């Protein structure tokens, strides 16, 4: 059903536009009331969003039907990356015949949950069908550009960032390009060509170069750095660099991880941690996760983190138990470490809450010139009689209204400490919320919601 040949089907956007139109007509007729635009992105996603970042997971379409898999994904993550479903062999296994069904299932699920989607990946030497490798140069160039065009057109407007080219550099000290059909037949210029084609197809998507063993400063990352610098100087469209960050004892988190992210950011691109997993267990694994999250938070252009799977049992390196949830979907110490590093706290349940209350931020509406924010305050395992939550509203944004809470402003007028008006008393596990309207004055930055304190 999702089979599509080039130039044939109108793609997904038309479908969405129709359903929005239908909802609008029904609402105008008073038939339904539209739900708000609140997006619940989940505990890790919300904590990261309060820091202006996303926190996502790689997902596989064939696990979405497993209830604890879907509920863990929905409760925790604010972004998804299809683990294999958008690779060339999955989408165009024979020339010109596209099958988007598995990738569509993931994108539909994510959009239904208000999650962002990373597109992975358009041009890569691996998981590449044999017919591509067999083409001669002219044909290969046409096939590459057609693949990018068809795939990005299908998902136009739905993908936050695309990994346009994946893993084009060799490991080791040479700094050379990796041999691949694209490199060998088209030369270095294939990367630039892929990015230019991608920009023309979906100018709204961020375009990333993605690689591994580039997480610290070394010959390979130096070569990628030189390429990105050259692209920025010559105006080749590139917006972001992805650092896969697959770590284990042979390939530990580099000591210059943060510095390496920063030097790329200083070239004028965003940086993203795209495939994080760290083999190990217990507090050592938790400490490494903390290091990685803190490095991203310390680099203002580090826009988000994706872990390469939801649960250890489906990890591509399951023997190394590298993820945040074990095979039974229990939170591991690494989960608590990530949540704490993101400034969130576990509101009880199986993780065991530490704070007496938690504060979770959601943007509930947005329009040209402003937005509404909502903070849900939830009591921990004991009842509370009052609470207090600091909210930093980045300058030049201004708060124009606040409800269900009373603000005390700092001298600089950017931090409002919100206390309850009538809604201070909460039983154990109960919650309330306050909301506010912000005039953006040109800034799209998210407010930073600090830790809730209670008594
Ligand atoms: C891996 C998937 O996790 C596996 O399921 C698949 O068998 C092979 O690919 N770098 C990447 C990812 O960019 O696409 C890879 O994903 C892991 C390494």
Automatic annotation (TrEMBL):
Q: Which residues form the GH10 domain?
A: 38-341
The protein's matches in PANTHER family, at most eight in alphabetical order, are given as: BETA-XYLANASE (PTHR31490:SF88), GLYCOSYL HYDROLASE (PTHR31490)
The UniProt keywords, alphabetically, are: Carbohydrate metabolism, Glycosidase, Hydrolase, Polysaccharide degradation, Signal, Xylan degradation
Q: Which residues form the active site?
A: 275 (nucleophile)
Pfam families assigned: CBM_2, Glyco_hydro_10
Organism equals Streptomyces nitrosporeus
Q: What is this protein called?
A: Beta-xylanase
The reactions it catalyses are: Endohydrolysis of (1->4)-beta-D-xylosidic linkages in xylans
């Amino acid at each position: 059903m999702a089979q599509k040949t080039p130039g044939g089907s109108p793609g997904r956007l038309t479908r969405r536009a129709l359903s929005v139109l239908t909802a609008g007509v029904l609402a105008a007729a008073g038939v339904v009331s539209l739900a708000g635009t609140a997006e619940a992105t989940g505990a890790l996603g919300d904590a990261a969003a309060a820091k202006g970042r996303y926190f996502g997971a790689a997902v596989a379409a064939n696990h979405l039907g497993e209830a604890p898999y879907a509920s863990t994904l929905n409760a925790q993550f604010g972004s998804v990356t299809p683990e294999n479903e958008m690779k060339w062999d999955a989408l165009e296994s024979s020339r010109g015949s596209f099958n988007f069904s598995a990738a569509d299932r993931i994108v539909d699920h994510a959009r239904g949950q208000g999650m962002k989607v990373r597109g992975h990946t358009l041009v890569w030497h691996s998981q590449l069908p044999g017919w591509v490798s067999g083409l001669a140069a002219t044909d290969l160039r046409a096939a590459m550009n057609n693949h990018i065009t068809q795939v990005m057109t299908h998902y136009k407007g739905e993908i936050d960032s695309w990994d346009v080219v994946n893993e084009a550099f060799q490991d080791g000290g040479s700094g050379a390009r990796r041999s691949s059909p694209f490199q060998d037949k088209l030369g270095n210029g294939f990367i630039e060509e892929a990015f230019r084609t991608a920009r023309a197809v979906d100018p709204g998507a961020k375009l990333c170069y993605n690689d591994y063993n580039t997480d610290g400063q070394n010959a390979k990352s130096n070569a990628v750095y030189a390429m990105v610098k050259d692209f920025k100087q010559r105006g080749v469209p590139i917006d972001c660099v992805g650092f896969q960050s697959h770590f284990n004892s042979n390939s530990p988190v580099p000591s210059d991880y943060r510095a390496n992210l920063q030097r790329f950011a200083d070239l004028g691109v965003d940086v993203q941690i795209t495939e994080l997993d760290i083999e190990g267990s217990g507090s050592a694994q938790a400490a490494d996760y903390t290091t990685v999250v803190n490095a991203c938070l310390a680099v203002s252009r580090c826009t988000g983190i994706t872990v390469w799977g939801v649960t250890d049992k489906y990890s591509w390196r399951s023997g190394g138990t590298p993820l945040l949830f074990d095979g039974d979907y229990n939170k591991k110490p690494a989960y608590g470490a990530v949540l704490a590093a993101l400034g969130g706290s576990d509101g009880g349940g199986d993780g065991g809450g530490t704070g007496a209350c938690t504060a979770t931020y959601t943007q509930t509406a947005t329009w040209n010139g402003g937005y509404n924010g909502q903070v849900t305050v939830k009591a921990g395992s004991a009842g509370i009689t009052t609470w207090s939550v600091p909210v930093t509203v980045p300058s030049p944004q201004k708060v124009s209204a606040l409800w269900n809470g009373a603000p005390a402003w700092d001298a600089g007028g950017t931090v409002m400490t919100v206390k309850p008006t009538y809604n201070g008393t909460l039983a154990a596990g109960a919650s309330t919320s306050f909301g506010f309207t912000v005039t953006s004055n040109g800034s799209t930055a998210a407010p930073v919601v600090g830790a809730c304190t209670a008594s």
